[in-house]
Amino acid sequence: MVAVTALGLAAAFLFALSAFLQQRAARAVVGSDTASLRDASGVKRLFGSLVRSRTWLAGWLTNLCGVGTQAAALKVGSVAAVQPLMAAQLLFVLSLASGEQRRWPSGRDWLSALAVCAGLVLLLTAEASPLTGAPHRHRVWLATVCTVGLIVVLRQVSRRTFPWLAGLLIGVAAGLCHALNAVYLKLTVEDLFHGGAVATLFDWPVYALAVTAVSGMFLVQIAFASGPLPPAVAAMSVTNPVASFVLGILAFDAPAPHDPGVLAAIGVSGVLIAVGIVGLANASGTQHLYRISTEVTPLQIGHAAEADVRRRAVLRLR
Q1: Whether pLDDT at 13 is above 80
Q2: Mean pLDDT along residues 178-205
Q3: Cβ(70)–Cβ(8) under 8 Å?
Q4: Which residue, among 181, 9, 182, has the nearest Cα to 88 in the 3D structure?
Q5: What are the backbone angles phi and psi of residue 55, rounded to the nearest 5°?
Q6: How many CA atoms are closer than 13 Å to the CA of 177, on its beta-carbon side?
Q7: With contact defined as beta carbons under 8 Å apart, do 273 and 238 qualify?
Q8: Under 8 Å CB-to-CB from 239, ≥6 apart: which residues?
Q9: How many helices (H) and strands (E) does the chain have?
Q10: Per residue in 13-40, is it b (16+ CB within 10 Å) or e — as a string?
């Protein structure tokens, strides 16, 4: 259990560090001009710059290390023991984001992050229906259409709202995409197991898997560039298991939970997660970095005025 805990927390830290590095690279490209992400040209410029950024590549490699560490934890322990530990990445993200700003997180920041983590742990340990059972492919298609429609709506709304809310909404969209990715990964693995590689290449789930994987990566980067890091990571971390839970009931032969204890745990986890995300989205600590990037301080005004006086003096001398 000590080894499982150590590996699980190490994987959570690596995922948090990966998100921190990738958001830092995205913010270096976008800066305070988050409005540029509302247009396709701004998104294209973002990704064109990210693929040439050493910071972003370091974040991507860190994410691969996190996947390997998580796989090692799953090899040693069970899914039920490892997955709840992944919720700790939100605490690591909060610490890294606050460390970059050289300011200690506020009490509301910590309480909000702990509420989300507690809600996630409770949800993941409630023994609710996962993606198990035989899939119904017509239901998978219907679930895909509904999920993609919701992702498009979230993206459109994020283009017309505040930066901190835009990052949260796109984080939800990325979580939905990751849940779809899990569905198609399961279908692809079943194709490989029953028909082999050739049958898999002639079936559509493997190509849907590629599309959802790439789309999820794009949405994650847009979420990182659109607003503060903790709310975006919280939205992704919460949406993925919740959406997977719903997809497991709708598209697979997974039974809906009926036990009163499980239903109560799901309800309490929902309240904790909702309160935590609202707190993270509105806490001053998570918005501080974006406020100071858009506000002009009196010192900056003084420097600008002094530079203007010097420029005029030089012009007079000429």
Answers
A1: yes
A2: 82
A3: yes
A4: 9
A5: -65, -45
A6: 23
A7: yes
A8: 171, 172, 174, 175, 176, 178, 179
A9: 13, 0
A10: bbbbbbbbbbbbbbbebbeeebeebbee
Contact assessment for residue 229 and residue 97, using Cβ atoms and an 8 Å cutoff: yes
For helices 89-101 and 284-294, the axis angle rounded to 10 degrees is 40
Kindly tell me if the per-residue pLDDT of 295 is higher than 70.
Answer: no
The single-letter code of the amino acid at 114 is L
Give 16's contacts (C-beta < 8 A, 6+ positions apart). 89, 90, 92, 93, 96, 233
Contact 232, 224 (CB under 8 A): yes
179-185: average pLDDT: 82
SS3 label, residue 102: coil
Element (H, E) at 201: helix 163-201
* CB burial string 106-119: b at 16+ within 10 A, e below: beebbebbbbbbbb
Q: What is the pLDDT of residues 95-145, one digit of tens each?
A: 887 777 677 767 777 788 788 888 877 776 765 555 556 677 788 888 889
> For residue 252, what are the β-bridge partners?
135
**DSSP-assigned letters across all residues of 9-45:** HHHHHHHHHHHHHHHHHHHHHHTT-GGGGGSHHHHHH
